[in-house]
Amino acid sequence: MVRLQHRDLDVVGITLRPGTLYGALDRLTDDGLVAHDHEEVVDGRLRRYYRLTDQGLDVLGAETERMRRNVKAATDRLRASGRVAGGLA
């Protein structure tokens, strides 16, 4: 099971307002990519937890591979132009 916490998004520079976050979770749930895992009350507030489904893991894997190929293509173009970004050699 893969769990992503809201604070994990802050680490990678993503800021989501609650309406955006829950709208995205609703769409991901409707698409079968995430599923409701459990709920708990923390400091008097309901906290909902979601998990990636098997289909969600497959989609995440495919998207990760697509992004990896895009990064490689961009890095190859930078190298070919004689410019190197982000300490790449």
From TrEMBL:
All residue ranges annotated as the Transcription regulator PadR N-terminal domain in the record: 13-60
Superkingdom as given in the UniProt entry: Bacteria
SUPFAM superfamilies (alphabetical): Winged helix' DNA-binding domain (SSF46785)
PANTHER family: PADR-FAMILY TRANSCRIPTIONAL REGULATOR
Name of the protein in its database record: PadR family transcriptional regulator
Classification lineage: Bacteria, Bacillati, Actinomycetota, Actinomycetes, Cryptosporangiales
